[in-house]
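dumping the sequnces here before i forget
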Amino acid sequence: MVLPSSAGARFRQRKISVKHSLPVWKQRDIPDLELAEQQRELQQFETGVEKGEEEEHHLQAVINASAAQIQGAKVEQVYIPTPDASKVWKDAGKYYHQKFTPPTSYIRFSATVEDTVGCPYCIDEEDEEFLKSMNEEAGSDTENKCSEDEFELVAYRLESVVNEKQPFLKLNPDELMSFQEIKEVALVPDKTDPSDVARTLENQLNIHPFKTLLDAEPTNGKQPRPLATLFKLFGQKIYNHWRQRRIKRLGEPVFPTVKLEDPSQKDDNDPYVCFRRREFRQARKTRRTDTQGAERLQLFYKDLKHARSLLFMVAEREVQRMEHLKQEREVFNLRCQIKNVKRELGIKGEDEDLVTHKKKRIPVPDPEQIKEQQRLQQLEREKALAKDSKKKLSDKEKSKQKLELHLPASSSAQGGKSGTTPQQILLQQQLAEQQQAQQQGAATTPASIQPYVKLPSSKIPDLDLTTVNTVLQDKLEGIKKAVADKLSKRKGQDDGWVNFTDDPYNPYFDIATYDDNLLQERSHLPYSSIASSLYEVEKSREIDFSNILNNNKHFGHEDVVKINAATGQLMKSDKLNHLPEFYDLTGQDSDYADLDDDTHHSDKNKLSISETVFKLRKRVGRNGKLWIDRKRVKEDSWFKDMDFLDYEPSSSESENEFEPAMEHPSSPPSPVPSHTEAENNSMTKQEKKRINVYDSHSDAKRRLISRFEFDRDLPSYQPLDPSKLNQIGNQTQAIRFGCMLLTKAYDNMHHIRQKQIEQHQQRLLAQQKLQKQQQAAAAAAAAAIQDQTLGSDDGGMVGSNGVVGVSGDVSSKSSVPRSQSPKVGLKHVAQKQLGKKMVSSGPSKGTKGKATAKSS
Amino acid sequence: MPEPTSKNEYDKLKKKLKESLAKKKELDKKLTKLEEDIFNKETKYLSDGINHGNIIKGFENFTKNVSGTSASRTKKIQFTDEDRIFSLSSATYVRHLKKINSGQATGSLNSSVALLDDDMEDADSESNNTPKKKK
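..and the predicted 3d for all of it:
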């Protein structure tokens, strides 16, 4: 059995208890164990109905019967009674006419029954009799006769109004509303009534009568009249009849309705209640879900409203479409009539309204028509011209003109024949303008471009023909613009900042390795982390920042500062120059296009280099000394320009002369060799000029320059880049630095947190102390008296031990339940409070202790 | 025309025809505008209902419990042109759209309109076929 919840609950095994005697079964006491077991299982069958309804009479009968059958007893087959649906009513065809023909597809239907049945009131025999007599009274006038449908409408409205307004009518049926009262309510449209939808739609869409596919055909092919007129005509009479019936029924509705359950007075025993409510416990909900439901309903309402308006628009569209079709039909009919009339009267022309015109496309007129028109125009003009020029022109020209008359208009326009007369030229131009009004430039002189090709005007494309040059130029412009955009964007990012980085706008990837001699073991290169730092940007520039950094001027947001990359001086603040410097990487730049001199151009765009480039030569000198010669590759103009070089640096520095630099093979380069070198250099000079080396101011300068030029204290590095100082790659450096910061921050945080925790603990301790003291005070007051002697013995100790006692007490807080320790602790506290006073004032401490305890 | 016709009658008729033609034109304009309005409103409606559903696809997401995390889990309802029952139920508008799309060759409507059109043609051919079969 699969359902343990119900089955298990019913046959729970009880615990064996000593208090209950267990029956002892013998074989003979049990008739048939197997059968009993079977039965037991049988009862576990799930009936499939609610627990409370398992008691139902018929169900029980069936269960019992089947159980008995299994046990072997012969029982009659028992059924749960169901309504008999086997009978066929033969006369049905007489009353119900089947007009339904099954469609080929599935029937899709979403309307409710209430939507389709029409008026819910059904006329019965009594009503029919009354209706007959009423109609007879009315006489022969059909207007005064009431159809059955109309009667039903009125009666239903009467009932519904009273049901709504007088729900407790059955308590006192005589208080039924009067006809006037009902009429007032009844003629106000009822919003909840499904028929109201149709009514509002009828008004809004202006369709009379509003009929849907769901509406039943009226019985005698006549639509019932509106309620208002019906009430006016028959209301009072029908009301009397209906009132009498309703009172007879003790206020219950005349037309039988389904008896629904009244939720306030549940009556399970009433067998006629239809659709009983099932009770189920409401799941507990949070308030949030409550509002959610409301919100969802609102959303739903909105959605439906939106959909309704859409549907309404669709309906409106269809109505308009119908009107449109009607209009079209009317037009057609009118045209037919007019045609007839025209034929009779013999009128010709004026046909433009009689034909349905295709929509004219405005940009492309009908070529044939235009040709025709143009030809006509030309003919007229030619005629006029011919008349004018008759006297002036010779016969030859005349014939020429005649020839041209027969040429098609386009050919004369595009033929490019040189006009013989000014009139003709004028004419040609006019034609050209007419034909190719949309074409510009080239089109005005068609002869020069397309001298031999003749196109009908309709086939000439409306495009401006472009040359390859313009396309290429556009492309170039586009690229330039894109680059300029990028640059200005880049500049925008720097807004408010001064960018000291190496040329932020024109990145270059001129990466070179250091001099070869740095690498001692090349085989380690792939595994060396240092190797990455061996690459450097070759044409790096140093900017002297001292000028800027020493300057106290604050660069505002608005300032755009430009720095001379070479000297580090502020050049100008050009607000107007929105574009950054634009180095031309490919060569010709539009900005420099006017500079014809190529070298000048390249000079201007050249990146200035702070470090001189050397050639190095290694050689072994005397005594096995290793020499490394350095040679300047190119004279740097920058050095020449420096103002402190009053005299020309000797040409010895250039080109072919090698300046020896001493270096020991293994030791790092030291400043010593440079000194000697400088001295060597200066010595030669001194010999010429005979000036004391150490007095010479210029020589000092010279030495300085020399040192600056040639000496490197460390194998080359960028002095501004701190990460290069210890030869560690940028990334490594960044990571290390980041890690350092992180650990530092973490430590800080940890420290702070630790402190917080400590503070918190201390606060807690203090609180506990306070509480303890308060508690202890009372106890101690009593204890103090009792233990006076003990206290006096300990007195000397307490003064010093007091704190220890307290802290011990607090730490033993968790072990408070121990019976003895708190008392001792408390005592200590009290005594500590009293402190040395107790010791000093000896005999009076008992009373004093009381006092302090109280006060605390 | 049984009654005697005259120039007067003819002019009257002509005037009437002119009037009704103008009226027809007016109606045409109104209709196109209405159809466009429907299309736009429908687009809005369908895109509004991406999360909770619409009357074409149903409101399944409504009953689902929408909590913070499951909001993203609920399947979004993508609407296609087949859902455009409001605007595309007009044959003239379908034709109109097709014209637009053939001109621009852009927009998502292209394929579905073509589809719709195919359907219509199918329907036509079916309706053409059935009587033949009956015969």
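Residues 105-135 of chain B have pLDDT under 50 and may be disordered.
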